[in-house]
Amino acid sequence: MKIISYNVNGVRAAIKKGLLEWLQEEDADIICLQEIKAKQDQIPTDLISQAGYPYQYYYSANKPGYSGVAIFCKQEPTNVVYGTGIEYMDFEGRNLRVDFDTFSVMSLYLPSASNINRLDFKYKYMDDFFDYITNLKQEIPNLIICGDYNICHQAIDIHDPVRNAKVSGFLPEERAWLDKFIQHGFIDSFRMFNKEPHQYSWWTYRANARNNNKGWRIDYNMVAEPLQDRITHASILPTAMHSDHCPILVQIKA
Questions:
Q1: Active-site residue 27, yes or no?
Q2: Catalytic residue among 29, 120, 148, 179
Q3: Whose CA is closest to 145, among 158, 160, 134, 161?
């Protein structure tokens, strides 16, 4: 079972850059998208079906052209859950989950705080999301949370940990939250297979950062511990060029 997560930074723009052809080539079973920046009726769902994904689920932000998540599936889920039931979260379209017989997959877009005025909002979201997932795991222990967490976990995950030490996305409080999240039953699947530095999933568009590999690893496929023995592979796919992010992949035994 091949699962890919990808912050596309606008699904319509990514499609114009060849996203659909790439989807066909990768042939994943499940695709989790973040930051789709569109409503479902603005998206060419028929072309996505033709690319191999007849089951498509969208959860857009109320604000046009902002945030939003989606999941594309080759097989029909047994259940689909839109949002968390927490109003301020759901207003921004940041959580979508599909359930299958032996596991569930969530597409998550955790807020950034590039604007310092959003930092308190991000912290509140992180705390409430942690509580939500803690309760959800009681009901659904085999959970995979794919997405853009907007946090670099460790110094190995960012190109310049010293200069970025006071930048949101690498603040001590954010990193401690990710520590806690992992310690409470999740596996950073990529680090199971790759301990090397200079492995990133996002690069600013400024200063030729991607060509110089001055990036951040802020996208994760977090896999609940009960599924650990079913994880067979995880990787970053940096050659995909439809966004300022690149896709990340995890494979599990079905």
A1: no
A2: 148
A3: 134
